[in-house]
From TrEMBL:
It is a single-pass membrane protein. This is Uncharacterized protein. GO terms for cellular component: membrane. It is found in: Membrane. InterPro entries: ROH1-like. Belongs to the ROH1 family. Pfam families: ROH1-like. It comes from the Eukaryota. Keywords: Membrane, Transmembrane, Transmembrane helix.
Length: 353
């Protein structure tokens, strides 16, 4: 749990999560070891790919889209590992199943919160389109309407989404499950638990960064300490320190921290407002034309970014939901997981086991 005396830099210390899972002398067959190593090396590469060339890009919709895409790929890989392990549900420990269902419900809640925020921002984008439409006219009456729309957009963007606050409590809870259940006499179970540990670390990292970026607060960024014997540990620590450090630098600099695409729109609006409100002379008319053009480009980039990220979040939601459904089906039927299921429409609220 985060330390109350240091709210600006919560740190989660779990000791050695594999002390019970991979005790000294544990043996994995060459096949199982190769399966685990392949997964962990792929995860290490994904952590490396998360590190942006431009540090400020971490506060961008384009980086968030990449992060969610890598997260979806990794959760899909777990399904592949389960299939290749040929580990029937009857051999799953009840604790593994409980942790899986509990974590997946929490992640579904996070997805719903992110979707809510993306929808809120998209609705604000309608105000930009209205303003651009009115700015095409030369009437002072239309300029008043445009100015009102721009004011409305800025008020919407500066407001807070209460659903995001719950994300931080959920993320804190998710970190507590990283001290994995004990695995007895099951080499396949040890491989599965270690792979799932890596997935959960990536999930907490990505969701923590997105929650901080959406909420405009770095106070509750999660700093994880992971087992250094994992093949992806160095890559993870490198990207976590780099991204969390840069976000904290941006937020502590006194600058209003907006998503990069939102910042582009806000910059254009700041240039437009004085021209629209003070009236137009020959010089201002030419400036207005350029400012409107810039705002149009920024608004389009924002709209496209929101749409793409919303699809990625929905894709992650579907992966979680179908994974839960597959495990439920197999628990009832007593067969190996996963079982293909039809895509389920997104729902609001918690999915119930």
């Amino acid at each position: 749990m985060s330390r109350p005396q240091d709210p600006h830099r919560p740190s989660f210390s779990f000791g050695n999560p594999f002390k019970m899972i991979l005790p000294k002398g544990s043996y994995l067959s060459p096949k199982l070891l190769a399966l685990l190593n392949t997964f962990e090396l792929a995860l290490a590469e994904r952590f490396r790919n998360l590190k942006p060339k431009d540090k400020e890009c971490v506060l961008s919709l384009s980086w968030m889209k990449l992060a969610m895409e890598l997260l979806c790929q990794t959760h899909t890989d777990i399904k592949t590992i389960i299939t290749e392990l040929e580990l029937p549900v009857c051999d799953w420990d009840d604790k593994w199943i409980d942790v899986y269902f509990d974590n997946s419900v929490k992640l579904l809640d996070i997805c719903n919160a992110f979707s809510s925020e993306l929808s809120r921002l998209s609705q604000g984008n309608l105000l930009l389109q209205c303003a651009l439409h009115n700015l095409d006219a030369s009437s002072s009456k239309q300029f008043v309407k445009a100015s009102s729309s721009l004011d409305g957009w800025r008020q919407r963007i500066s407001s807070k989404n209460p659903r995001l606050e719950n994300c931080f409590a959920i993320l804190a809870s998710l970190t507590e499950t990283l001290n994995l259940p004990k695995v007895k006499n099951s080499a396949k179970g040890k491989v599965l638990m270690q792979a799932m540990y890596g997935v959960r670390v990536l999930t907490v990292l990505v969701c923590s960064i997105l929650a901080a970026a959406f909420s405009g607060s770095a106070n509750k960024l999660v700093d994880l300490k992971v087992l250094d014997t994992c093949l992806w540990a160095e890559a993870f620590t490198n990207v976590q320190d780099s991204i969390n450090g840069e976000i904290r630098n941006i937020f502590s600099s006194g600058r209003v921290a907006l998503l990069k695409e939102l910042e582009g729109v806000d910059t254009s609006i700041k240039k437009l407002h004085p021209v629209v409100k003070d009236g137009l002379g020959p010089v201002e008319a030419e400036a207005l034309k350029n400012y409107v053009l810039d705002l149009g480009k920024a608004a389009t980039k924002l709209s496209q970014g929101l749409d793409i990220l919303a699809k990625q979040v929905d894709g992650f939601f579907q992966i979680l939901l179908t994974g839960r459904n597959a495990l439920l089906c197999n628990l009832r039927a007593g067969i190996s997981v996963p079982v293909p299921v039809h895509k389920t429409n997104k729902v609001e609220g918690k999915a119930v086991r």
